[in-house]
Amino acid sequence: MRIGIDIRAILSPHYDGNVGGGHYVLHLVKSLLQVDNYNEYFLLCDEKLRHKDRVFFSSFDNVQLLPFPRPFFSKIMPGLYNETFALSFLQKAGLNVLHVPLSSIRIPSGYRGKVVVSVYDLSVYLRPDQFPSIYRTRQKAIKLFNVRKADALIVPYFEIAERVTDIFQFDGSDVHVVSPG
Length: 181
Known about the structure:
alpha/beta
């Protein structure tokens, strides 16, 4: 099976505002690679991937690093970038499953493959007063979009599974609890 995992947030706080998400992605991928040598993994990265991580991931025979293209306007018009370049990039990869480990990274709306999304941070729903309104609105919109696009969700605890099914009206049978550690 060809499994794509978006690893752009590995220890890169520029994606979700904290390093916690980056640690989650790093340990998720490391754990998967150490127990599974049957599937092919396509790790979707960018130029910010640390050299030592690049070397580590490249040491596995069943791993291929796929750097996202970074045209000049990706920062100026991220929506257009996501719906054109990122979509084309994902379609060309020919993945059986795309795993988006951070629900704050938006999946292109035109992507038609199977999608798994990890949801572990519901703070914008549980403590909305702690966030600026623009950030809160953006994060809620992206999470809702990603969850609706997902075929399955991964959450770290049963409590979060219950909250995810309540907040997003997501089918509980497609929510899988994978405890950290």
